[in-house]
Amino acid sequence: MKRQSPSGSGGTDSAADRKQATETEPLLRAENLVKTHQGVGTAVKAVRGVDLSVGRGEFVAITGPSGAGKSTLLHLLGGLDRPDEGRIWIEGRRTDTYSEARWALLRRRSIGIVFQFFNLVSQLTVADNVELPALLAGYRPSQARKARAELLSDLGLEGKENSTPGELSGGEQQRVALARALVNHPALLLADEPGGSLDSKGTREVLRLLSRFHGRGQTIVLVSHDARMASAADRVISLFDGRITDDATLSREGPRPGGVSGTLDIGG
Ligand SMILES: Nc1ncnc2c1ncn2[C@@H]1O[C@H](COP(=O)(O)OP(=O)(O)OP(=O)(O)O)[C@@H](O)[C@H]1O
Fold it and tell me: Judging by DSSP bridges, how do beta strands 243-251 and 93-94 pair with one another?
């Protein structure tokens, strides 16, 4: 998918930032991430020293049992939550000094996120839900409309433009959420249990769509406890008790679950 820049948007990156952000850098790099959640009278160490690097065009699944720290890690990677320790670089830019506003700008430009429960704005139509991030990122209304129309058509949602999320099935809502996440042509798509609230048909559909966008060069980091979801990825990272316990790269030779070729090749 070709990335486009919005016109007339504010908050440009500094020259030093741009210089840092070379094509040779991994798209995403994290070093020694640590996060403890403070509950009432308790503290839960959810992420305990995670190092991670994701190259452009990779499809990485982060998997592990309930409570392993998957969602916490994904939230850190998307700047939705802050690590207690460690650093994150996105497109070569170090983010640990970023303000909330700066993270929001980075997400608008470079990171699309889909969640288990879609998080669509229930009062807005499908069209408006998808166009909103493009308008916020500074695209002209005509550009936002065009991008929205292309994505909705691509995702089989033509004719649903004027519906509100409540009038759609779960699978349709997740496709709208995917369109919204991709409308700004993000370098990175983060997906947090995107099939988690769908039936098996809906899960297969999301998987098929993620594979399709990955086939067009989209970098994806997916969090799921569901082995079917993980099977669509190039690389499966196992998380247990806040630590990475395995990092397996799929080669593209033999049969692969979900109808895509590949065999497991356990790497370091
Ligand atoms: N806001 C919070 N406050 C306190 N504890 C939290 C909070 N969020 C997560 N936790 C705890 O941190 C640990 C990791 O949670 P997290 O949601 O990251 O795991 P997960 O692997 O995504 O689990 P699941 O597959 O069940 O969604 C769990 O023990 C969880 O109870």
Answer: unpaired
Q: Are 252 and 215 in contact (CB under 8 A)?
A: no
Are the C-beta atoms of residues 204 and 194 closer than 8 Å to each other? no
Instruction: Provide the pLDDT for residue 41.
Output: 85
DSSP state of 5: P
Residues 65-96 have pLDDT tens digits of 999 999 999 999 999 999 999 999 999 999 99
Instruction: Tell how far the Cα of 238 is from the centroid of ligand 1, in angstroms.
Output: 16
Mean pLDDT of the chain: 86
Look at the block and give the residue holding tokens 């190092």.
Answer: 51
Whether this prediction's pTM lies above 0.90 is answered by no
What homologous superfamily is domain 55-86+97-252 in, according to CATH? P-loop containing nucleotide triphosphate hydrolases (3.40.50.300)
Please give the number of the atom of ligand 1 that sits closest to the Cα of 68: 21
Distance from the alpha carbon of residue 69 to the mean position of ligand 1, in angstroms: 6
Whether this model's ipTM surpasses 0.90 comes out as yes
Pocket of ligand 1 (CB under 6 A): 37, 39, 44, 46, 64, 66-72, 225
Q: Is 72 helix (H, G, I), strand (E, B) or coil?
A: helix
Query: Going by CA atoms, what residue is nearest to atom 7 of ligand 1?
Result: 37
25 pLDDT tier (thresholds 50, 70, 90): confident
Mutate to test the pocket of ligand 1, among 34, 36, 44 (most ligand atoms within 8 A of CB): 44
Q: Domain residues of the chain, as ranges? A: 55-86+97-252
In the reported structure, the alpha carbon of residue 84 is separated from the centroid of ligand 1 by a whole-number distance in angstroms of 15
DSSP state at residue 12: P
> What is the rounded average pLDDT of the residues 169-187?
94
